[in-house]
């Protein structure tokens, strides 16, 4: 494997040791499209089952000991936060980002914090404030905010008024956060709203985060851009502004498809990691960025899809570590566009899988996480336990 000048294999290993990626509790559950939901016997239903699956993924990959939770789905009435925290700890996991849910209840049909009705705005803000408290209880310092707020028709809402409601809600939440907590503001251009989304892009998210306060940054979900968007450019820009807070990784072809990472455009994933590695090399320190997965595996088995994604993310991060940035910079100095690009292409083309297999073996992990997971029989075991408890009807669209 060709290494960039001045970088050793042990440098790569040390950086990989610090590369971890959070898996989402909802990625282990039965999900679907708006046309329906297909159930898998092995898919998790309760937070206990989701944590068990996350632990199984971590046991073969070694780099995902943190689990994102969605408040409404994971903490229904009767579930105690202290129990969840204790269960996670027993499995050697941490509860990671806290995701409030202000999009599912009937009252949010016309918006949450930008709803015209002050009582609904208050209900939404109170739920997010409750999520801040929940984060404190489970030892999480990340509050991850995604809003479905938007309108379907021109004239339906006063866009500037809604912006002001957003500013004041996020400010209020920010003021309630403990000093170690970070607020991540996620953007999405469309869906479920189809005319305008209140936080449609990274610029709006950055503006709202700045209004909220110093502990607020932008969350880039790789599935939340219009076709053709240059995501790594956004990433580089946000890094330079000190506003990049984290990622929701997934892949897409058309919309917010939530496919496994790298399945459609692995070069894009590599280019994103390349911007991160370049910035880290320039400053000599790791970026403080939360790497998270946000996927919904409707066709693939949940845990296998998660392992695939984690392994792919690790591979492409490793490839980005192979970019000879000095060679690229030297090529730029003489306007040699071809060789500057070549530095990226060479790294991208390198097969890092044998190196990563050795790296895993050196840590007592399986060389091939997916194969080891299949051999463990975990899916069949949990399917036998969980399957009979599930209703076989699936979920209808209408
Ligand atoms: C949204 C967005 C959020 C996620 C929900 C379930 O499209 O990506 O991050 O929490 O889906
Ligand atoms: Mn997301
Ligand atoms: Mn999404």
Describe the protein's architecture and organization.
- By secondary structure, the chain is of the alpha/beta class.
- Strands 6-8-10-11-12 form a 5-stranded parallel sheet. Strands 1-4-5 form a 3-stranded parallel sheet. The chain has a 3-stranded antiparallel sheet with strand order 2-3-13, with no helix packed on it.
- α8 packs parallel to α9 (266-283).
- 46% of the residues lie in helices and 12% in strands.
- α9 (266-283) links the parallel β11 (244-249) and β12 (290-293).
- 44% of the residues are buried.
- The protein has 15 helices and 13 strands.
- It has helices spanning 9-17, 47-61, 71-74, 81-90, 118-138, 159-176, 202-212, 231-240, 266-283, 302-321, 325-333, 337-349, 353-362, 369-376, 378-386, and strands spanning 23-24, 32-33, 36-37, 66-70, 94-99, 142-145, 150-151, 182-186, 196-197, 216-221, 244-249, 290-293, 395-396.
- It is globular.
- One manganese (II) ion binds next to loops.
């Amino acid at each position: 494997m060709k290494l960039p000048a001045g970088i050793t294999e042990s440098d790569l290993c040390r950086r990989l040791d610090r590369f971890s990626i959070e898996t989402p509790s909802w990625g282990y559950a039965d999900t679907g499209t708006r046309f329906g939901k297909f159930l898998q016997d092995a898919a998790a239903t309760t937070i206990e089952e989701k944590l068990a699956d996350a632990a199984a993924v971590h046991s073969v990959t070694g780099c995902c000991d943190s689990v994102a939770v969605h408040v409404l789905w994971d903490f229904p009435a009767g579930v105690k936060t202290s129990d969840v925290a204790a269960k996670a700890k027993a499995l050697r996991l941490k509860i990671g980002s806290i995701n409030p849910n202000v999009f599912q209840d009937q009252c949010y049909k016309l918006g949450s914090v930008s709803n015209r009705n002050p009582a609904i705005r208050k209900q939404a803000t109170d739920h997010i404030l409750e999520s801040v408290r929940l984060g404190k209880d489970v030892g999480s310092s990340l509050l991850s905010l995604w809003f479905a707020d938007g309108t379907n028709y021109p004239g339906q809402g006063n866009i500037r008024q809604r912006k002001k409601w957003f500013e004041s809600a996020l400010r209020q939440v920010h003021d309630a956060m403990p000093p170690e907590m970070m607020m991540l503001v996620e953007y999405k251009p469309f869906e479920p709203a189809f005319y305008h989304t209140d936080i449609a892009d990274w610029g709006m998210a950055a503006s709202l985060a700045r209004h909220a306060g110093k502990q607020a940054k932008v969350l880039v979900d790789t599935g939340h851009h219009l076709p053709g968007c240059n995501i790594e450019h956004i990433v580089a820009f946000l890094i330079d502004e000190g506003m990049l807070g984290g990622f929701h990784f997934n892949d897409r072809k058309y919309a917010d498809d939530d496919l496994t990472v790298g399945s459609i455009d692995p070069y894009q994933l590599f280019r994103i990691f390349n911007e991160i590695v370049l910035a880290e090399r320039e400053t000599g320190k790791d970026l403080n960025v939360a790497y998270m997965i946000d996927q919904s595996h409707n066709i693939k088995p949940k845990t296998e899809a998660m392992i695939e994604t984690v392994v792919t993310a690790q591979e492409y991060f490793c490839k980005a570590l192979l970019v000879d940035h000095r060679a690229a910079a030297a090529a730029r100095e003489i306007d040699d566009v071809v060789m500057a690009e070549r530095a990226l292409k060479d790294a991208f083309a390198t097969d890092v899988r044998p190196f990563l297999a050795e790296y895993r073996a050196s840590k007592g992990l399986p060389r091939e996480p997916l194969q080891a997971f299949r051999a463990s029989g975990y899916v069949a075991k949990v399917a036998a336990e969980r399957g009979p408890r599930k209703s076989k009807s699936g979920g209808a669209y209408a």
